[in-house]
């Protein structure tokens, strides 16, 4: 059986000396820092014998794999930046990593970044959570910070930078579940009426009837839509990415161009509107189209082709998009959101989020008696817990089921049942 590979002499050599303070000191290499340089741990004892014993103990722990790498040197900020920049890009999507980075760089690193990784305790994190709540952050934000910290510190444990994960023991605040308030059928009809005749007016019919996510709807191409068969396939999504500096080799380095934001860098890269794969495997799905929506999409296609002919000299032919700008380009999600708000105002409908159109579609499907598994497939949900948020619709269906059962078993037989329970005179 082969043992652990031996470290080179340069990597494992320890040095001893007697200091001006009269004590004996040693420097022991325990591993490598994140920058690749040797990490040397300092020991100090009153006698040389005590020092030799301490050095042997540390070297034996290191050589047997029991010494966590970078035991004393690494700070929480160093680990979190290493996790964000070196580990996450290999396993998660850009948007997910961007959200993680926002949580950590805004809410964690400014407060706890200087703390040594090994000094973190559950109480340290709980104090952070209370401070965030006192600063007006919602329980959803604080719970998100907790989840990201737990994930990053789990990786530190797996790689032996930590013995235990303090975030696994810390108690985050209880998340307040917000009740979904979907649009009513009358409100939906008012929105569709207000959108009629607009550029991309069918966009809102797709949102309210199919419940596509914003990026999914904006990423639709005509190859994804079979109007004859009445089927639409979700295969990609539009995403806006933050520009990165191209003037510096590392994202966190001081930008050489002198500009703070990557969007201002003359050599900016990796930003702007891009098409990406859907967020999960179940998000890649086929959805049947309601017949009225098929007719509306045919009319939208004809109007778009007329516009394309009128502006042939400036039309963007990169993608054959179902919903595009008036010159054929990808629609910015921010502009799409502004259009939604304008349609709501024109329709005289209360202000709701664009994502509430997706909630509305799911609710309407449930209220029409579509079984939950079919709704999950249409919406691209992966977990039943997501469907349970629609408890208002599920409760109404339960009452309707009870009414139907009553009609099936007792309708017309009430008198007979009443008579059968009369006591003898």
Indicate the CATH topology of the largest domain. hpI Integrase, Chain A
The number of helices is 17
- Major sheet, described briefly? 3 strands, antiparallel
Global Rg: 31 Å
Poorly predicted residue ranges: 1-10, 417-421
- The overall average pLDDT, rounded, is 84
Provide a concise account of the structure shown:
This protein is mainly alpha-helical and 425 residues long. Helices cover 47% and strands 10% of the residues.
What can you tell me about this protein's structure?
With 425 residues, the chain is mostly helical. The chain has four domains: 9-63, no CATH class; 76-169, Tyrosine recombinase, N-terminal domain (DNA polymerase, domain 1), CATH 1.10.150; 185-244 and 268-352, Intergrase catalytic core (hpI Integrase, Chain A, Orthogonal Bundle), CATH 1.10.443.10; 357-410. 47% of the residues lie in helices and 10% in strands. The chain has 17 helices and eight strands. A hairpin with a 5-residue loop joins strand 2 and strand 3 (38-45). The chain is elongated, with a radius of gyration of 31 Å.
What tags apply to this protein structure?
425 residues; mainly alpha; hpI Integrase, Chain A; 4 domains; 17 helices; 47% helix; 10% strand; DNA integration; Site-specific integrase; DNA recombination
Strand and helix layout:
Layout: H1 9-12, E1 15-18, E2 24-32, E3 38-45, H2 48-63, H3 76-87, H4 94-112, H5 122-134, H6 139-158, H7 166-169, H8 185-195, H9 202-210, H10 214-218, E4 225-226, E5 231-234, E6 237-241, E7 272-276, E8 285-288, H11 291-310, H12 333-347, H13 355-367, H14 372-379, H15 384-387, H16 391-410, H17 414-420
Antiparallel strand pairs: 1-2, 2-3, 4-5, 5-8, 6-7
Organism: Fodinibacter luteus
Keywords: DNA integration, DNA recombination, DNA-binding
Domain Core-binding (CB): 74-157
């Amino acid at each position: 059986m082969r043992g652990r590979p031996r470290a080179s002499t340069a990597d494992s050599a320890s040095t001893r000396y007697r200091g001006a303070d009269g004590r004996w000191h040693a420097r022991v290499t325990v591993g490598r820092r994140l920058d690749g340089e040797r990490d040397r741990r300092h020991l100090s004892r009153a006698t040389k014998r005590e020092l030799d014993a301490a050095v042997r103990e540390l070297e034996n722990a290191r050589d047997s794999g029991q010494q966590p790498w970078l035991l004393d040197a690494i700070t929480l900020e160093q680990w979190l930046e290493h996790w964000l920049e070196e580990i996450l890009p290999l396993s998660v999507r850009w948007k997910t990593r961007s959200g993680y980075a926002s949580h950590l760089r805004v809410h964690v690193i400014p407060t706890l970044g200087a703390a040594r990784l090994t000094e973190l305790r559950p109480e340290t994190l709980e104090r952070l959570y209370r401070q965030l709540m006192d600063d007006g952050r919602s329980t959803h934000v604080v719970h998100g910070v907790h989840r990201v910290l737990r994930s990053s510190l789990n990786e530190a444990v797996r790689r032996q930078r930590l013995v235990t994960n303090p975030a696994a023991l810390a108690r985050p605040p209880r998340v307040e579940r917000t009740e979904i308030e979907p649009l009513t059928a009358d409100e939906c009809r008012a929105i569709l009426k207000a959108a009629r005749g607009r550029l991309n007016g069918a966009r809102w019919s797709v949102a309210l009837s199919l419940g596509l996510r914003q990026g999914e709807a904006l990423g639709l191409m005509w190859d994804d839509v079979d109007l004859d068969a009445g089927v639409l396939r979700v295969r990609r999504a539009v995403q806006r990415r933050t520009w990165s500096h191209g003037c510096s080799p590392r994202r966190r380095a001081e930008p050489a161009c002198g500009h703070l934001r990557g969007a201002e860098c003359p050599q900016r890269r990796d930003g702007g509107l891009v098409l990406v794969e859907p967020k999960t495997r179940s998000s890649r799905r086929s959805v049947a189209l309601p017949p009225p929506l098929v007719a509306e999409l045919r009319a939208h296609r004809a109007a778009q082709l007329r516009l394309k002919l009128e502006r042939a000299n400036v039309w963007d032919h990169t993608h054959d998009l179902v919903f595009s700008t008036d010159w054929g380009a990808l629609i910015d999600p921010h502009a799409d959101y502004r259009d939604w708000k304008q349609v709501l105002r024109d329709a005289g409908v209360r202000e709701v989020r664009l994502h509430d159109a997706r909630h509305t579609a799911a609710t309407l499907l449930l209220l029409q008696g579509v079984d939950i598994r079919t709704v999950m497939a249409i919406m691209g949900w992966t977990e039943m817990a997501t469907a349970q948020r629609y408890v208002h619709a599920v409760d109404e269906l339960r009452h309707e089921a009870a009414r139907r059962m009553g009609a099936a078993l007792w309708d017309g037989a009430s008198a007979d049942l009443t008579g059968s329970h009369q006591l003898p005179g």
